[in-house]
Design brief:
Elements (H helix, E strand, L loop, with lengths): L18 H19 L5 E8 L10 E5 L4 H12 L8 E4 L11 H8 L5 E6 L6
Parallel strand pairs: 1-4
Antiparallel strand pairs: 1-2, 3-4
Length: about 130
């Protein structure tokens, strides 16, 4: 039995791939997707520094997964300080700017690391800009 169907000229149309090639391509695609989905296991050292009247943390160096969004850092800081979601918390990188919650820790670290760690300043009131 032929692998294709006859076209108008009477020739057999052939498929550009065989069933074995499809499964190999699908396997490769799934492996690529799994690699993409894996979280970056590397950690970034984050140093928390209080600004103004914010309470000082007993421990201020933490290792945080680099692939996390900055929102995870904010939530972690709230948990460590014992603050509720409605309590005011302002965060800054290197006393300069407030990062977007969807920025990744990895990108912030690559761009703004100081002495091998990312400095996150926190305050209960708006300190800058």
């Amino acid at each position: 039995m032929a692998s294709g169907s006859p076209d108008d000229s009477g020739r057999q149309a052939t498929l550009p791939w065989t069933p074995g090639e499809v499964s190999e391509s699908a396997t490769e695609a799934l492996q690529s997707l799994d690699t993409y989905k894996k979280k970056d296991p590397s950690k970034v050292v984050v140093r928390f520094k209080a600004v103004g009247n914010a309470p000082i943390m007993r421990q201020n160096f933490y290792k945080i997964t680099a692939s996390n969004r900055f929102q995870a850092v904010i939530q972690f800081l709230r948990k460590e300080l014992g603050w509720k979601a409605g309590d005011p918390l302002f965060t800054y990188i290197n006393l300069a700017f407030s990062p977007a919650p969807d920025d990744t820790v990895s990108n912030l670290y690559k761009s703004f690391a100081t002495e091998g760690h990312l400095i996150v300043n926190y305050s209960t009131t708006a300190a800058w800009g």
